[in-house]
Task: inverse folding
């Protein structure tokens, strides 16, 4: 049960506090339009500020073996097996990490839950498009995932993801989540959120509002699909970068990202449209 009062995710550099509890005002749960037509095709303007409360991994470290640290040096991502290599970052500036069959794992991040939600975001570029990989079951490229630590005792799969932010076989952005009883995949609407060519940089993001039960998918700062009625089973475990693990953290990595990732941001709350656009402009 949530304790009334002030709650804050304490990080040395970034912090956002919000009043929660029984005296909190009723949330505005108006269902967002699936596609933000106003945003599409427009340049993203930003004041350069990063919304508070998130954990940011710039992925600028040249030696991943030593640990990929977030901007406040609070959390580290560790390699499983071989490590990704340093590469040119998003928009041709800074550094990112190039993945082929590698995976990073981040331990100890605050787990979102039924009273908070989450935001996951990353700059991403593919060297191989999912449609060009074989066999068909591997035609998903996953940038960020949080597979369950323990098996789910009920349908649909006995496994699952709190989230998996991927590109699916038609090269559209895709976020996959599961509850105890069902799986939900939200794909960018037709004609939107598609990676057309290799070496293109795009900003991928997904949010889930726990109170409104709303999942929103973003591509280059623009909303490209949304859906309400989404419930998620949060199972404390690591966050994976560069692959998924078939929905169970103990499984072998799969659905590898074949390309470069940069500027990972993770929140334990759902950002709104304007905050997502600030993330895109924060370079």
Result:
């Amino acid at each position: 049960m949530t304790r009334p009062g002030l709650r804050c995710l304490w990080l040395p550099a970034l912090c956002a506090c919000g009043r929660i509890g029984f005296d909190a005002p009723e949330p505005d749960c108006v269902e967002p339009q699936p596609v933000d037509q106003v945003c599409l095709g427009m340049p993203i303007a930003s004041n350069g500020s990063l919304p508070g409360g998130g954990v940011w991994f710039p992925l600028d470290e040249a030696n991943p073996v030593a640990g990929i640290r977030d901007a406040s040096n609070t959390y580290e991502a560790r390699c499983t097996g071989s490590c990704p290599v340093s590469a040119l970052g998003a928009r041709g500036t800074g550094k990112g990490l190039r993945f082929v069959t590698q995976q990073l794992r981040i331990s100890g991040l605050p787990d979102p839950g039924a009273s908070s939600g989450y935001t996951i975001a990353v700059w991403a570029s593919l060297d191989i498009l999912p449609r060009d990989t074989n066999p068909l079951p591997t035609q998903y490229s996953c940038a960020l995932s949080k597979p369950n630590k323990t098996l789910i005792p009920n349908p649909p799969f006995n496994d699952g993801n709190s989230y998996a932010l991927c590109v699916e076989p038609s090269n559209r952005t895709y976020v996959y989540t599961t509850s105890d009883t069902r799986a939900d995949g939200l794909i960018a609407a037709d004609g939107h959120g598609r990676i057309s060519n290799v070496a293109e940089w795009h900003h991928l993001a997904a949010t889930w509002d726990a109170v409104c039960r709303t999942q929103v998918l973003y591509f280059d700062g623009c909303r490209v699909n949304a859906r309400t009625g989404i419930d998620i089973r949060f199972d404390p475990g690591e966050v994976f970068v560069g692959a998924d693990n078939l929905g169970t953290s103990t499984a072998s990595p799969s659905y590898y990202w074949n390309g470069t990732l940069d500027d990972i941001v993770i929140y334990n709350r759902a950002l709104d449209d304007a905050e997502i656009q600030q993330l895109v402009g924060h370079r």
User: Anything to note?
Assistant: The mean pLDDT is 81.
